[in-house]
Amino acid sequence: MKRKSLFIHCLVLIALIAVLPLSMVQADGHCEFAEDTVKIGGLVPLSAPGAVAGGIAMSWAINRAADDINADCGITIDGANHAIEIVIGDSEGSPERGQAVVERFILEDEVDAVTGVYHSAVGLATMSMLDENGVPTVFSEPWNDNVSANGIMEYDGRPPRNADGVDHVFRVSPASSMVGGVVVNWLIDLGVGNVVIIAENTDYGQPAAADEYARFEAAGATVTQINVELGTEDFVPILSRIQASAETPDVVRVLVTGETSFNLTQQMAELGIAPTEDTICVTNQVAFQSEQYWQNVPDGNYCAFNRVGIIPSLFSDTAVELNDAYFEEFEDIVPSYAMASYDAVFILADAIERAGSTSDGAAISAAIETTDLDLSQGRYYFEYGNHNPELPEGTPAFMWHQWPDPVVTMMQYFEQGQSSLDAAVIYPAVYQTHGTDYITPGSSP
What's the pLDDT tens digit per position in 275-328? Predict the structure, then answer.
């Protein structure tokens, strides 16, 4: 079988980037590059208990973006072409490890910019370090609302912005509240009244659960929340509590990331809890990686999942090319966090070029604020920042340095082993592909 082991592939990829001379990374040699490279740090989880598959996809995308930009002669500053050099760091999904990697990025690698970050806890733990050291940063996957809200409000005892009044941290992934609103609105429209939320005990899971819990309660639903730890393998004791409850839940909502979500969803399906005719299964967006999903969740047909990122039927030429390249490597569909990581490198490269400097973090961050680029997931821009500092009344604080237009949809499998390219988009109605907002287990759209 052509597909490589994801873990082995990642180790080989990182090793090659570390040892290849720059000339070997320079496309076909038609570009004349300056000696100085533009260093971009990619902070991703490549070891347990982090979401290793997610980190591998992000690492691949970050390097792919650099290769594509270098093939077009890199970043032009004062008439000279500078190649992008990627420095990958393994966060392990740990805030402490993420901080250590960022410290290395700043003090040893002397990176010019940073992207990546899968886990919200890592983003929250590192963003003040990046901001205080003036490192332009475009996070591509953490969802916690405060990742972007930190620019205009106090977070964890720290004042907003840094000493020079400039915010250096941006985000192209959605805030949790943006995703939760879509999920809850869909389920309320379906008429659910009894909800079980299973949430990981992290800076992603708990705020996301609190947001969805409040939305469900406001709509009149009864909500039970169960918290779990990342890395848990046996969920039977927890799931037995659901089975023993007096009332069968209308939906089990999984707010657990990475490989842990696969374990939970499979065991939930094996026990006959969900998906069933009575109980909707709503699992994590990693379900979109269909080959991994079916390998780990063979009983997960008819589970629904939130999908962040442009839907396959609306892929642009750039998205199609990126998806084809990803499939060539992994024989799977490119996930949204890989697309976002790819796009983030282009956003940083564009801003550095327009700023005319690799070292002036304030100028680069100001250029990011005025981004206007069409990339794999759509048109990128940042509505609110120092260029437009007044958020209208009622606008959430997380909209600061937040890409406002990530597409969030609900999708559902309805055939065993189905590719996510063929899964049904069921909500919102404007994106529906099969004319229905839910497919009852055992039926076809």
Answer: 999 999 999 888 988 998 999 999 999 999 999 888 888 899 999 999 999 999
The CATH number covering residue 299 comes to 3.40.50.2300
Q: Within this chain, do residues 192 and 145 fall inside the same structural domain, yes or no?
A: no
Distance CA(140)–CA(134), nearest Å, equals 18
- pLDDT tens per residue across span 341-367: 999 999 999 999 999 999 999 999 999
Both tokens assigned to 68: 């594509």
Query: Taking all residues of the chain, what is their mean pLDDT, rounded to a whole number?
Result: 90
Neighbours of 227 (CB within 10 A): 16
Cα 155 to Cα 134: distance, rounded to the nearest angstrom? 18
**What is the C-alpha separation between 28 and 58, in angstroms, rounded?**
25
Transcribe 202-247 into DSSP letters.
STTHHHHHHHHHHHHHHTT-EEEEEEE-TT----HHHHHHHHHSSS
Cβ atoms of 402 and 419 closer than 8 Å:
no
For the chain, give the number of residues: 445
- Same-domain check for residues 239 and 385: no
- Tell me how far apart the alpha carbons of residues 348 and 112 are, in angstroms, rounded to a whole number: 10
On whether both 287 and 423 belong to a single domain, the answer is: yes
The pLDDT value recorded for residue 27 is: 46
Please report the DSSP string for 388-426 in residue order.
B--PPTT--GGGBTB-S---EEEEE--STT--TTTSEEE
Helix H or strand E segment including 379: strand 378-380
Pairing mode, if any, of strands 137-139 and 169-171?
Answer: parallel
Q: What is the pLDDT of residue 30?
A: 83
DSSP string, 241-259: HHHHSSS--SEEEEE--HH
pTM value is 0.84
Contact criterion met (CB below 8 Å) for 422 and 312: no
Q: Are 266 and 340 in a shared domain?
A: no
Beta carbons of 53 and 286 less than 8 angstroms apart: yes
pLDDT of residue 400: 94
265 falls within a domain? yes
Judgement on whether residues 102 and 85 belong to the same structural domain of the protein: yes
Structure tokens belonging to residue 435: 């004319």
Domain extent, residue 250, equals 176-309+408-431
Tell me: do 165 and 60 sit in the same domain: yes
Task: Encode pLDDT of 17-31 as tens digits.
Answer: 333 333 334 445 689
- For 72-210, where are the E strands, in sequence order? 75-77, 80-82, 84-90, 113-116, 137-139, 169-171, 194-200
> 335: cis peptide before it, omega within 30°?
no
